[in-house]
């Protein structure tokens, strides 16, 4: 193949071609002189010691040596020509393009590609930079070769009307573990898990990490109905395996899943050949075009470049709590939708457990690419994780725990014999199994893949027809087809999430958010009228958003299983089975809330403080009873006396309550002032001035005041102000209910003018006073403690945190113990909660 | 090509082995250390015998004794242009890999006769001329080496089956 050679930038331009040493048709070898040229340069001559030098122009000649080997076809320069800059010089028909290289040798001519010489400016190894073979990294090809190979592949696939499907192994089509307990259970027909594990296949791996986990048995559970699934899918797709496990592991699994090697053939790529420990890339296998490639994987974050081709399946978690045994290298996953049914997570191997995995997130820094030290560390970690699983036997623990629970339950009902010793035939119910084989993901997956295949080839045929007319055939992109299909699934649905994602992360950036959008749903960061569904995490119910959403009948409040079902079925599934109800989750029943309602109403009806303020305060997440009671009362108000501005105000209020829109939150108190009764404020103030007798802890308070950039005054004025501060804080807690307290107080304080502050203060003092008698101290405290505890194990606080402080305050106020209030107020929220709860 | 080659190597022996059968131990250690390794551009296949075991010299500082051993070994040095028998190990669209003893060979599709084509639909994928020639993993082949490269302790080759009497070996 012909190649045009440039003269290169290294020559001393301008040059004059003296004579051409080769004629077209001549064979040229590497480093052979091709032409002679002359150039001019300045030479310093004279006596340097006497400092008597001058420059003289010199003319020298040199030869241009061939950087490549082949036959000279044509000169693009001629003798006598003056060349001033780098330009094409000649055309050579290369003997070999070195398009396939193996270990530094050309696979076509067998020459050593690692040799470098003065004549060529580029290295021959750079000619074939692409590695696209499944089981090798040492074999590289050039771009044209890759293109050629891929075109052939596409042609072949189109002929057989197939697409390419890249299949992940772990937790997508199988679940693996190395817990020896499984083997024991398999041998023991009396074990309650026997039915579940009897179909678990196993293989032994020799290349695993040395130590305890060396030569251990890998137990592989195939996803239910996997065989039929693969057999049917293989008629529409050419299957590839792409796993983050080792080569030996991948082949072991492939042997189990596909013993005849009919499905996957040799198309298996593993971590060893991937070239990247942290991410998978379709470009590794299909460097030119991914137009016909679909991926199924349980993790979307490992496919950073190929999201459009990805069908994310819900992770298969058969060996509960084991997770993905090959995921130690990957960043901890963020996208798990924990099933609503509470699962005791056993963190078997440092892989993320099902439940509170976020707890150890601190240690999982994003791995630096190509960092050998980190990789080494992770290899160690993987090894440790495997060993830990061998030693700890998480499944056994799980079963023991289950047995214990069963036992207790049994004892509670009848005084029958010990379930452990009971023959299983007589008492099949006594021991509950830990492992359940009830996964139906593949059914839906098959439907989706079938549909995708159908739609793609319809599109392809249409394109082909068009091409017959225009002669311009373009292969449709299956990624686009997939997006179109998916986008129909949840169109028109606006979803708000609560308790699902960590604070401080924008919903759009999270895995769930991205997935929702890919399904055509709109993700709302706060509750508005547009929201159609609120997804509540059953592990963290009772959030602020939930409370807001409860008041809008059009919002369907569902648990996270609904989301999971939608994702796996690609449809907006019927919400009925997933509706989230308070009672079923052990939260206080609404009846209790209503009980406090009359109090609330009676306490606030006479001077009717502005709605906005009252609502805001009542929204404080942990003022649970009051909050909910207030809600009821408020809603009543909306219906009766606020009809004129009910709609607008509701909207405005939503904005005020918005978790991540501080601006809105700041506006709210001032809005409330418009309809403020200033007279009663003054009265309130006077009352405070008169009653202020607790100046002992002024000093403690000073810090607080200085924070605000205000100078503290002595005497009753100080007391008054302090009091307002307290109220104000409470007020703010209500406003920015989604933000943790410490951050919130600091954040909302800074950046406000002192004037606004003063105004707000007055107002909030007013508002509080009228509601003071609503606080139910003891229940509040309890509730606060409970909530606090429930949100502790994870950093995903959705605003429940500040409640402790607020509640503490309320309780103290209720008791009129001002001094103690101040002490509490100064203390950190956490401490106070502990005291309370 | 196989050669009988006279080689020399320094073998160190731990003091705890000093004794009557020291020379046997030296030979054993030599065999263990050397057999089956790639020494530059040849593989040491087997050690025939040791013909010269020098007197041991105790190394200052460590106490180990060092023997200089002259030995005779069968070595295999693949040459460019040599024809070797190999077993195919994996097949891909660009060519196939084969193993000639310790040597890993790659035969690219360019160096396979034109009538032998890659067939991706077969299980497992193979190169075939739809007649007697089927190249899939574990097929025995006769390959001509056209390129060789060595690195410390490793050696690779590029092979060709484009020529008379090259290709599949009839069983």
Automatic annotation (TrEMBL), chain A:
<keyword id="KW-0378">Hydrolase</keyword>
<feature type="compositionally biased region" description="Acidic residues">
    <location>
        <begin position="726"/>
        <end position="735"/>
    </location>
</feature>
<dbReference type="InterPro" id="IPR023214">
    <property type="entry name" value="HAD_sf"/>
</dbReference>
<dbReference type="Pfam" id="PF03031">
    <property type="entry name" value="NIF"/>
</dbReference>
<dbReference type="InterPro" id="IPR004274">
    <property type="entry name" value="FCP1_dom"/>
</dbReference>
<feature type="compositionally biased region" description="Polar residues">
    <location>
        <begin position="765"/>
        <end position="776"/>
    </location>
</feature>
<keyword id="KW-0539">Nucleus</keyword>
<feature type="compositionally biased region" description="Acidic residues">
    <location>
        <begin position="633"/>
        <end position="652"/>
    </location>
</feature>
<feature type="region of interest" description="Disordered">
    <location>
        <begin position="627"/>
        <end position="810"/>
    </location>
</feature>
<feature type="domain" description="FCP1 homology">
    <location>
        <begin position="158"/>
        <end position="336"/>
    </location>
</feature>
<feature type="region of interest" description="Disordered">
    <location>
        <begin position="341"/>
        <end position="369"/>
    </location>
</feature>
<feature type="compositionally biased region" description="Polar residues">
    <location>
        <begin position="738"/>
        <end position="754"/>
    </location>
</feature>
<dbReference type="GO" id="GO:0005634">
    <property type="term" value="C:nucleus"/>
</dbReference>
<dbReference type="InterPro" id="IPR039189">
    <property type="entry name" value="Fcp1"/>
</dbReference>
<feature type="compositionally biased region" description="Low complexity">
    <location>
        <begin position="345"/>
        <end position="356"/>
    </location>
</feature>
<feature type="compositionally biased region" description="Basic residues">
    <location>
        <begin position="755"/>
        <end position="764"/>
    </location>
</feature>
<dbReference type="InterPro" id="IPR001357">
    <property type="entry name" value="BRCT_dom"/>
</dbReference>
<feature type="region of interest" description="Disordered">
    <location>
        <begin position="404"/>
        <end position="433"/>
    </location>
</feature>
<dbReference type="InterPro" id="IPR036420">
    <property type="entry name" value="BRCT_dom_sf"/>
</dbReference>
<feature type="compositionally biased region" description="Acidic residues">
    <location>
        <begin position="681"/>
        <end position="711"/>
    </location>
</feature>
<dbReference type="InterPro" id="IPR011947">
    <property type="entry name" value="FCP1_euk"/>
</dbReference>
<protein>
    <recommendedName>
        <fullName>RNA polymerase II subunit A C-terminal domain phosphatase</fullName>
        <ecNumber>3.1.3.16</ecNumber>
    </recommendedName>
</protein>
TrEMBL record, chain B:
<dbReference type="InterPro" id="IPR036898">
    <property type="entry name" value="RNA_pol_Rpb7-like_N_sf"/>
</dbReference>
<dbReference type="GO" id="GO:0003697">
    <property type="term" value="F:single-stranded DNA binding"/>
</dbReference>
<dbReference type="GO" id="GO:0000932">
    <property type="term" value="C:P-body"/>
</dbReference>
<dbReference type="GO" id="GO:0031369">
    <property type="term" value="F:translation initiation factor binding"/>
</dbReference>
<dbReference type="GO" id="GO:0005665">
    <property type="term" value="C:RNA polymerase II, core complex"/>
</dbReference>
<feature type="domain" description="S1 motif">
    <location>
        <begin position="78"/>
        <end position="152"/>
    </location>
</feature>
<dbReference type="GO" id="GO:0045948">
    <property type="term" value="P:positive regulation of translational initiation"/>
</dbReference>
<dbReference type="InterPro" id="IPR003029">
    <property type="entry name" value="S1_domain"/>
</dbReference>
<keyword id="KW-0539">Nucleus</keyword>
<comment type="similarity">
    <text>Belongs to the eukaryotic RPB7/RPC8 RNA polymerase subunit family.</text>
</comment>
<dbReference type="InterPro" id="IPR012340">
    <property type="entry name" value="NA-bd_OB-fold"/>
</dbReference>
<feature type="domain" description="RNA polymerase Rpb7-like N-terminal">
    <location>
        <begin position="8"/>
        <end position="63"/>
    </location>
</feature>
<keyword id="KW-0240">DNA-directed RNA polymerase</keyword>
<comment type="function">
    <text>DNA-dependent RNA polymerase which catalyzes the transcription of DNA into RNA using the four ribonucleoside triphosphates as substrates.</text>
</comment>
<dbReference type="GO" id="GO:0060213">
    <property type="term" value="P:positive regulation of nuclear-transcribed mRNA poly(A) tail shortening"/>
</dbReference>
<dbReference type="Pfam" id="PF03876">
    <property type="entry name" value="SHS2_Rpb7-N"/>
</dbReference>
<dbReference type="InterPro" id="IPR045113">
    <property type="entry name" value="Rpb7-like"/>
</dbReference>
<dbReference type="GO" id="GO:0003727">
    <property type="term" value="F:single-stranded RNA binding"/>
</dbReference>
<protein>
    <recommendedName>
        <fullName>DNA-directed RNA polymerase subunit</fullName>
    </recommendedName>
</protein>
<dbReference type="GO" id="GO:0006367">
    <property type="term" value="P:transcription initiation at RNA polymerase II promoter"/>
</dbReference>
<dbReference type="InterPro" id="IPR005576">
    <property type="entry name" value="Rpb7-like_N"/>
</dbReference>
<keyword id="KW-0804">Transcription</keyword>
